[in-house]
Design goal:
alpha+beta, disordered C terminus, disordered N terminus, single chain, 2-oxoadipate dioxygenase/decarboxylase, 16 strands, dioxygenase, dioxygenase activity, EC 1.13.11.93, HGLS, about 500 residues, 2,3-Dihydroxybiphenyl 1,2-Dioxygenase, domain 1, about 40% helix
């Protein structure tokens, strides 16, 4: 007798994963909702930013989206958090890895301003071009350097490190789910919701009372140090929308009666290409906090540590471009110090920019100062080379062989240069915004030696290599040139044109 047949039920299909880019996008929205509840002026900032962008697009049309589509710019945010130890920084790296965010860039804010800002920083963000296009959420993350004797004596260092080691910033389940998201490339529905809930809660403002005496001790050294090592948890320090016209945003916020910091940080507004990053913020607002007094009683008070920042992003500069930028910044400082009272930094900087920076994107590209993606234009005419005629019109290959100068290809319209957006930060600008929102400059002993930090040392803290942003931009540009060469069937000669006249040696060595 034959065995009875057994009806086998097909196993349930595996639940669909929420990919990391979608987790990242939802995380940015969740944090924005949280921050809007905690800092209502942030909602006003977002509303004004949206209005500025809509008006800018209406006025400038397609050119308005040259540095990013309006949908991306409107959705774009960067957050900022502060942590107190290498262990906490390593945990941050694990958490953000779950959202497809990786450490990029090293920033030392300790020497970037006259104020006491004893932190080194990196930013966690997507690095792949497609991932940036899906959602470019980034978080600027600063770590307190507790062993830097310019700021902390041995007793304060010991107490700081003990205080930080005793707290838990991230729930173990949040870190475990982050690891799972990395392993799977995303999370299933219930896990995704739980991960977002736990991650968002990690950055909510704590209601636990603050030890007033300990906080005051740290605040006398550095308000930033107090905000990191004097409170029981980390929190979103600011959440930053992106605008297409930061000068318009500044004027509109001021007209609403919102107190802005004295000036826009970074490059000036001028008629030439926007480069790198311009930032500003409204002043830190008084927020009610609970304090524990020396006798154990709980009292009410206020702290001013969180502010509303906004940014306008420009073209990423090459190493040569960044060197020129640093030189021009020093020159602005020199001229401003000698200028009549009432002269603004923006006025001086715009003049310096006109004198020394190319006035067009093409000039920036040919001078080797900015990063661009180069693509073959549809139907563009191809110039001749020294060894044969190059075909005209679109196609995957050219009939001629040889080489042609990049400038000739751009001039003929055969090749189109598209700017690569600067996705990162500027130490001096970040420190400038920190400084503008401090109630006191704190104290520092510059007779002491600072603790050395660089990209490699912070990479060891984070636990994975921190990417150099210049390497990422250069790889994008190189890949685009290789694709263009393959399409044209020739070698593109990329020799930099003559840059604007350099500043004198005296000016270059002027103190910042």
């Amino acid at each position: 007798m034959s065995a009875p047949s057994v009806l086998r039920q097909a196993p349930d299909p595996a639940p669909a994963l929420v990919p990391q880019w979608e987790l990242r996008a939802r995380f940015a929205v969740s944090l924005a909702t949280l921050y809007g509840r905690e800092v209502p002026a942030y909602t006003t900032l977002v509303d004004v930013s949206r209005a500025v962008n809509e008006d800018f697009v209406a006025e400038h049309g397609a050119d308005a989206e040259r540095l990013g589509s309006i949908s991306r710019v409107t959705a774009e945010r960067h957050g900022a958090i502060r942590v107190g130890s290498p262990a906490e920084m390593a945990q941050v790296a694990r958490l953000f890895a779950g959202f497809g965010m990786h450490p990029v860039g090293f920033y030392d804010l300790r020497d970037a301003s006259a104020s006491s800002v004893p932190v080194v920083s990196t930013a966690f963000r997507p690095t792949d071009v497609d991932e940036l296009a899906r959602n470019p959420f980034r978080v600027f993350t600063s770590m307190l350097v507790t062993d830097d004797r310019r700021f902390f004596d041995a007793e304060t260092q010991e107490r700081l490190e003990s205080f930080v080691a005793a707290r838990e910033l991230f729930a173990p389940d949040a870190l475990a789910l982050a690891d799972l998201a990395v392993a799977q490339g995303g999370l299933a529905g219930a896990d995704a919701e739980r991960f977002l809930e736990l991650a968002t809660a990690s950055f909510a403002l704590s209601t636990e009372p603050i030890d007033r005496a300990w906080y005051a001790h740290l605040e006398a050294i550095s308000a930033v140090a107090a905000d990191i090592g004097g409170v029981p948890a980390t929190h979103i320090n600011h959440l930053t929308p992106r605008v297409l016209d930061i000068d318009d945003l500044y004027a509109r916020m001021s007209a609403l009666g919102i107190t802005m910091i004295p000036e826009i940080q970074g490059p000036p507004g001028w008629e030439g290409p926007d480069v790198l990053l311009r930032q500003t913020s409204f002043k830190a607002l008084a927020e009610p906090r609970a304090f524990r007094e020396a006798d154990g009683t709980i009292s009410s008070g206020e702290l001013r540590v969180r502010f509303g920042e906004v940014e306008q992003r420009g073209i990423a500069l090459t190493t040569a471009g960044r060197d020129l930028y640093d030189t021009l910044t020093a020159e602005v400082d020199r001229r401003l110090a000698a200028a009549p009272e009432g002269t603004t930094r923006v006025e001086v900087a715009a003049d310096v920019w006109r004198e020394h920076l190319p006035a067009t994107e093409t000039g920036l590209a040919l001078a080797g100062l900015g990063f661009f993606r180069f693509r073959v234009a549809d139907g563009g005419a191809r110039p001749s080379t020294g060894s044969g005629s190059v075909a005209t019109g679109s196609g995957s290959a050219a009939t001629g062989t040889g080489s042609v100068a990049l400038g000739d290809l751009l001039a003929s319209g055969a090749l189109v240069a598209e700017p690569i957006v600067y996705e990162d930060f500027l130490p001096r600008s970040a420190a400038g915004i920190f400084q503008s929102n401090l109630t006191d400059e704190g104290s520092r002993d510059d007779e002491q030696l600072g603790t050395p930090y660089d990209l490699e040392r912070l990479s060891a803290v984070v636990g994975i290599p921190i990417a150099d942003p210049n390497d990422l931009y250069a790889a994008q540009q190189a890949a685009s040139l290789a694709e263009a060469e393959a399409a044209l069937g020739l070698t593109i000669r990329f020799t930099t044109a003559t840059t604007p006249a350099p500043l004198s040696q005296t000016q270059e060595n002027a103190p910042a």
